[in-house]
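User: Could you check the structure of this?
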Amino acid sequence: MSSPAGQRGGTGDATVRFTVDPTRVPTTPSAALDLVRAVTAGPDSYGPGYVRRSPYESDPAAWPVLGTDCVWRQKSLPGDVLATFTRHSRLPAAGSKGEVRTAATVTLHRTAAQADQEMAETLEEALRCPDQQLRATERISGLNSMGSGYGTNGNTSADDYLIEMGTYDDPALGKGSTYYIWNQVRLGPVTIAVVVEGGKGFGQGDLLTVQARAVAGMETEVRTALGVRK
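Assistant: Sure, the predicted structure tokens are below.
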């Protein structure tokens, strides 16, 4: 896989490393949920034409877990997570272009070390299960992943950066595979993730641009909400 240095778009613009102000970090589940709801990207974050996908928002009490059989299932929220929230969007099919599906997830852990552990586990999952069952008819295959700490491979924005790429199959969208891209970053105790399941006729670069735009917007929101004021 190529380096993320040229893929991050706006997310690589910040050159000052993020510093958390501990007094601004929520310490209760309710306050944490308010925060992640406020910063999780919706349709407007991806570009023109994106709309809400149904269901639009996730159950904040659910946590996705990849089993030993490489099938994703919903479990209860783990103890190290104060809050997590997901919004689903899509770009409807038009003309010769197929539907693009996106999802943005923001998670606040109790500590930065626990958020870092989530990043490590996510990287391990792609190595353990390069082919995964997402839902009854949705599969991803041939996953490759790369992680980059701050200051490596062009990552000058987040404490940690992870990208996964593969192919996506869903019979509901027609025959043949499309691109699958997962991008996750960590800022202190917060992880930000955006997945793009590409429509037919869209190049990988098109989808990376869409993804980078949404990640950059959420990074800015987290920096503003939790960063040390200069």
